[in-house]
Amino acid sequence: MSGEFDLIRRHFARPTPATLLGPGDDCALLAPTPGQTLAITTDMLVAGVHFFADTDPGRLGWKTLAVNLSDLAAMGAQPRWATLAGALPEADDSWLGAFADGFFACATRYGVDLVGGDTTRGPLTLSVTAIGELPLGSALRRDGAHAGDDLWISGSPGLAALALAALQGRTALPATLAERCRDALETPTPRIELGLALRTRQLASAAIDVSDGLLADLGHILERSHLAGEVELAALPAAPADIDSALWRDCLLAGGDDYELIFAAAPAARADIAALAQSLALPLTRFGQLLPGAETGSGQAPRLSVRDANGQPLTLTHRGYDHFA
Amino acid sequence: MSGEFDLIRRHFARPTPATLLGPGDDCALLAPTPGQTLAITTDMLVAGVHFFADTDPGRLGWKTLAVNLSDLAAMGAQPRWATLAGALPEADDSWLGAFADGFFACATRYGVDLVGGDTTRGPLTLSVTAIGELPLGSALRRDGAHAGDDLWISGSPGLAALALAALQGRTALPATLAERCRDALETPTPRIELGLALRTRQLASAAIDVSDGLLADLGHILERSHLAGEVELAALPAAPADIDSALWRDCLLAGGDDYELIFAAAPAARADIAALAQSLALPLTRFGQLLPGAETGSGQAPRLSVRDANGQPLTLTHRGYDHFA
């Protein structure tokens, strides 16, 4: 066999216990669980756009799969399988080994079989398709939210964007905070357990993961559910010590790459959600509410408003990150 | 909504009649046909590696999906769904429109719903994951061939490689032939109907599609089925008029990008295969046979031999294309 095949096989041929036929043929063969529907998502990461080319390959391997699993989490799906396609500028054995270790650490943690792939020479680009399962009609969709629902967010939003600001020299961070932010940026935790719990306990009416920024992604729920929304800035985590408040606000509201879940839930679910946060040891923060959509109002009402600690509306300059803006 | 989303939505939001929930949420939702297994494959195409950056975008759109469907064909699967991730150097409206038209021409032709995608800025790179269905245990695998089986190939192998040779200035082609070769290279036909017929009529013991070259891909069947093989060069299409015979031999045996199917079949199936060729209006050429593997012989026997028109063994210099060779 030639070099490419040997290299890929050595690093990426791992057991696929939940798969009829793993990598090595024209296709892999999967047996979906009878009665389940499939949730499928794809994300591409490009060096210089989504990550620095010198990012630690093990962390990059983790993140490459994690950002896809985050989309499964946002539907409440149980992760099952993934494929990986990658363009690499060179066949660097140690880089590939570290990348594979990070990728499979995430795959093993969430029970994912890597069932197929493609590797080629090219500018460093990584593309994953992930597949999960869930019962028909149970998915946490973006279009299921109701006026009057609370808005919740998991974890510690803003830290990944703060890490990026530090890496770009826009702020300095004390060492402990720097490490925590860097972990948030480079090894995000897909909120699989949260998504599964919200779905099986029927606690959420809608959900989305925060990849492009809190306001931008919340906007997708508003748009698809035909609702307006109000965000209370004071309910979200306060700026860490010595961090400029305007920078922090930008990290919180417009920073991407958090991969936390935003979800909508009826006020009646507050106690259950608090109990869930306890059982998952994961902060779940109520940060706003959903209102009837503009279609039923004046047509001029802002769809999404943010109030500061004094209850004054903030003027929003941008709501996220647009790859082609 | 911001520019990127508008652009992508305008060109790529098409009906997905065979899908529970199409693009626009964190995941698409698919309902597999009860009792069927899924065949899944992924292929990445990089500008400058797999295609020239100035390739006609409509043809590139077709090929981007077709090379993935070809893998489904090689398993005998019925195509169902695909995802598309792309990095683009710029958000060029007319390029995207033409690309989408070509992509959906292929998708419509073969009944594929595009269920998800991701688009980002970056060096032009396209990655598709395609999913098909087939009954449990019926797939045309690489490891199912038997000693004594005939070797067959569909269509007109060698033309895509000849087109590449012409584009690279290694040969000149008369206009009619040039167009035919260019079509073979740029708008390959995934042999879906052939794969389905071979599977449902149980005519083939193994199959693979020719992406890396006839000998290289045949080598995968030999390796996985633990067999040796003999190829009769004289059985394969002769060089077109005025084409150098050494160049043609190289195109036939080592040229990739044909996306024809190689399959193995018992000699008893010859009449049925000839009838199938008639009914599909697709040449099916018997070009060799499979022999017991070296494991049971001297251990020194060549696994794959090619005999020329005089029955003399050819010396093989290389067997295909290795992205990292």
Give an overview in words.
- Two copies of one chain form a homodimer.
- By secondary structure, chain A is an alpha+beta fold.
- The first copy, chain A, contains nine helices and eleven strands.
- The first copy, chain A, has two domains: 38-135, PurM-like, N-terminal domain (60s Ribosomal Protein L30, Chain: A, 2-Layer Sandwich); 142-307, Phosphoribosyl-aminoimidazole Synthetase, Chain A, domain 2, CATH 3.90.650.
- Helices cover 34% and strands 24% of the residues of chain A.
- Mean pLDDT of chain A is 92; it is low at 320-325.
- At the A-B interface, helix 1, strand 1, strand 2, helix 2 and strand 3 of A face helix 1, strand 1, strand 2, helix 2 and strand 3 of B.
- Strand 1 (28-30) of chain A pairs antiparallel with strand 2 of chain B, so a sheet runs across the interface.
Describe the secondary structure blueprint for this structure:
2 copies of one chain form a homodimer.
Chain A: H1 3-12, E1 28-30, E2 36-46, H2 57-75, E3 78-88, H3 93-109, E4 113-121, E5 125-135, E6 150-154, H4 159-167, H5 175-186, H6 192-200, E7 206-209, H7 214-225, E8 227-232, H8 245-254, E9 261-265, H9 270-280, E10 284-292, E11 304-307
Parallel strand pairs in A: 3-4, 8-11
Antiparallel strand pairs in A: 2-5, 3-5, 6-9, 6-10, 7-9, 8-10
Helix pairs in contact in A: 1-3, 2-3, 2-6, 4-5, 4-8
